[in-house]
Amino acid sequence: MYIKNLKIINFSDKYVLQNIDFHDGVNFVVDTESSGKHNKVGKTTFLKLIDIAMGAQERDRLYFDPETNSTEEELERYIIDNQANAELTIVDDINHPKAMHTLRVGLFKRGHYFIDGKQIKQSAYRIELNKILFNTQDKHPTFRQLISSFVRITMSGDTDTFLRNLPRASIATYRSVYNFLFDISDPSVDENRGNLEKQLKIVTEAEKQFKRVQQAHQPAEIKQIISSLVYQRDRLKEQIDDIVSLEQFTKNRKHLTTIRNRYSELTNKIGKLNYQLEQTKRLIAQTVSDSENAMSNQLTLNFFDEIKSLIPQLDKSFSDLVIFNQKLYQNKI
Fold it and tell me: Which InterPro entries does the entry mention (predicted)?
């Protein structure tokens, strides 16, 4: 596709501020016009307008200089007050076009995007441009990554780089872009390769971190340690076999395990019986003590005489009561 025409239109009054036609071959940008409504747009700004029409962000860089942190307030007010738009016409052939598209972008903040008169979101705008200019719907490489090889300017200024024209891009991204532009390989393969390389880098870094923190050995060192331990194990086994039969040792170990289990059971039973014995002794001592203190002779005798006076037919003596009570405690013991 080729650029056929670029217009700067004030949509506040539909005034066409600039109307530039492009021709086949080399086109030079020269600013010689002077008029009452001329906004003194320079050559670099003119090229930035093309980049904005190609989906570039930071439209405020038209009047804001990040290097000096200054704003061209007159230009900013002009764009906002007049609702200035950049309209770019692209064709498949300059002289005999068969396919033509009109791209329009509002130069002010939150300005809308249009393709062939239809308003569209910025993300969808780039997707459509990817279809129109590169005949692809793949997400990788992105449209902005591809168009950077043709529009050699950024919103932050001119760029004279050739092969490395993408800021902060990885080798995988460059490989994906150039493979697509020169039709070297499938972009999806490049994307998968890039993802695998990222995962490999993450795993490799994690391995380094683990070794540094845990002071881990290299695989070869670990194999050597294992080999040494196996050798020591085999040598100890031979020494044990010289002292005692392995089969007999295994049987004895099983028998020892059985004895240990039986010993634990008996120990538990003895413990329970000792506890019961202590409890019984305590109860006997308590009963004996109670039996010794159960009858206070004088108090009990007075109480017995009082009851007997109330029940004349009672034929038992106080001695009988004492003997009966002692028998009760003896039975309890």
Answer: P-loop_NTPase (IPR027417)
